[in-house]
Amino acid sequence: MSKTLHHGVAILEVLARHPHGLSTSDLADAVGVHRTVAHRLVRTLEAHRLCRRDDTKRVTLGTGLVTLAEPVEQDLRTVARPVMEDLAERTRATVHLVLRESASEVRALVVVEPRNAEVHVAFRPGQVHALDRGSAGLAMLAALPPVPGERPEVETARERGYAVTRGEVVSTVYGISALIPRRRGAPLSSIGISVFEIDDERALATAVAEAARQLGTLLH
Fold first, then answer.
1. Where is each IclR-ED domain found (predicted)?
2. Quick one: which H or E segment has residue 4?
3. Residue 194 to residues 88, 115, 168, 211: CA-CA distances in angstroms?
4. Which of helix, strand or coil describes residue 39?
């Protein structure tokens, strides 16, 4: 790998976890480089509008990232949002669209919170967690051929057409997810809900599966 590029990306990742900004010294400590190196990296990122410094010299993410992020799965995000909003209102639950990012990780691409629920789960888009933890990843694994040593929950999801987990991504929170059928070669993705309690698993799972099928139809 390019060490310089690695450190530059690491700075962006640190800033994503600190939306109110950090000093260059703080960034140097967080990334593990000398302050002079951190200063040069920040200046380079500034030149591409990927970060910026305010009047107090605190560094935050820049608007150039918006331009870079806009084309990422644009069709999927555009088509998915109204379907997700409808699912959120029907289930009174937080809805998440998750994409397989690597052999071992998934990332939340879009999160929609319900407007008609007194209490709901809240988390940010962009969060990453293990493929084999949480309903979103298990729904994706269930779409693949069985492998030795896979979790029993994957086989259950394969039989049911949806995955259910509790407390694997967020403590005490249930997740129900279903795979989104997509064209060959597209990354595996799933749509699901996060709730504190499940009163009627079948009804919620049916709503999630219907949303997944609807998205699959719209994307083909």
1. 57-220
2. helix 3-16
3. 10, 14, 11, 15
4. helix
Structure-block tokens of residue 41: 């990296």
Structural domain range at position 108 = 74-219
* CB neighbour list of residue 128: distance below 8 Å, 6 or more residues apart: 101, 105, 106, 107, 108
Residues 6 or more apart from 76 whose CB is under 8 A from it?
97, 99, 109, 189, 219
What is the phi/psi pair of residue 9, to 5°? -65, -40
Reported pTM: 0.74
Ordered per-residue pLDDT tens for the chain, 220 residues: 899 999 999 999 999 888 889 999 999 999 999 999 999 999 999 999 999 998 888 999 998 887 777 666 777 888 899 999 999 999 999 999 999 999 999 999 899 999 887 778 878 788 889 999 999 999 999 999 999 999 999 999 999 999 999 999 888 899 999 999 987 778 899 999 999 999 899 999 999 999 999 999 988 7
Bridge partners of 195, per DSSP, are 174
Shared-domain flag, residues 57 and 30: yes
Q: What is the CATH number of the domain that holds 87?
A: 3.30.450.40
